[in-house]
Amino acid sequence: MALNDGNMIPQLGFGVFQIEPKDTARAVGKALEVGYRHIDTAQMYGNEAEVGQAIRAAGLDRAEVFVTSKLNNGFHRPDDARKAFDSTLQALQFDYLDLFLIHWPLPTLYDGDFVSTWQVLEELQRDGRAKSIGVSNFQVPHLERLAAEAEVTPAVNQVEAHPYFGNEEVRDYGAAHNILTEAWSPIAQGRVLGDPTIVDVAEELGRTPAQVVLRWHVQRGDIVFPKSTTPKRIEENFQIFDFELDDAVMDRITSLNRGEAGRQGPNPDTFDYVPG
Ligand SMILES: NC(=O)c1ccc[n+]([C@@H]2O[C@H](COP(=O)([O-])OP(=O)(O)OC[C@H]3O[C@@H](n4cnc5c(N)ncnc54)[C@H](OP(=O)(O)O)[C@@H]3O)[C@@H](O)[C@H]2O)c1
Asked: 185-223, pLDDT tens digit by residue?
């Protein structure tokens, strides 16, 4: 897919949240072998070094794999953000990152200032060390504030989204402002896979529930990067481009949306966790 800055991002990637560093190189190695060319990590996940190792071990050119990382919550002050980005490149042993995100807006911390943090990301993009820049967990008012006070429009907004939590307002804002939506926890960490509607559709199509849900995201235009340490699932989650959901099925899945009640992760308006 084309980002608003002209760079391309593979719509399907591989997420490494909650993969232990000792298991990361194996999981990412398997994903690369299967064909994934987009890896989503973060400073907070503690496994950037192992992601870099796996890419080198796979013998792939740096340019063949799209890698995202995210600024940790303790580093929003501009000088800290610059240093943290340097540490990310060092851990990955890369000389550039494809996409760097502010992980959380933290509106109750740093006097509510995420704009000066964003301006550091603009700097990193200008100097070519972050090819694309974006945000994560930004709500509409946060995006509106960047639009009013910053120069660059985020290329993506990575937010929780799955059939139980459509996150429509944030997705609609992105669609209207040329910001692609990345859906985190796209299968709600497995919680939507036993849903009777999803199971029915999967049976009708001879697919697995995870494939149906990931396909629903892709047809909505979301970027997804399901996480798994199970080789069979890593393969299964990649096989989603050889079938289609018709409009009626898309609507059935979309109607599972429970609004705010379907949110599984923290609310970005109040989330203020800073790792020690
Ligand atoms: N920006 C943010 O704040 C944020 C927050 C959360 C996540 N993320 C990103 O989004 C990525 C994905 O989200 P996530 O890791 O929270 O959850 P997810 O991808 O929705 O679900 C992962 C869970 O589902 C299981 N699973 C995966 N494929 C399956 C399949 N085909 N059948 C059955 N179970 C399956 C995995 O188990 P096994 O591993 O045991 O196979 C794991 O427990 C993360 O890795 C991270 O990159 C970002």
From this structure: 999 999 999 999 999 999 999 999 999 999 999 999 999
CA gyration radius, the chain:
18
Any catalytic annotation for residue 96? no
**Verdict on whether the full-model pTM lies above 0.90:** yes
**Number of neighbours of residue 22 by Cβ within 10 angstroms:** 9
Among 71, 159, 185, 216, name the best residue to mutate to test ligand 1's pocket (greatest count of ligand atoms within 8 A of Cβ): 185
C-alpha–C-alpha distance, residues 144 and 133, integer Å: 17
Q: Which residues contact 6 (CB under 8 A, 6 or more apart)?
A: none
As a whole number of angstroms, the distance between CA 108 and CA 95 comes to 33
Of the candidates 45, 96, 164, 273, the residue annotated as catalytic is 45
Assess contact for 181 and 136: CB atoms under 8 A. Answer: no
**CA–CA separation, 73 and 10 (whole Å):** 26
Q: Which atom of ligand 1 is least distant from the CA of 16? A: 45
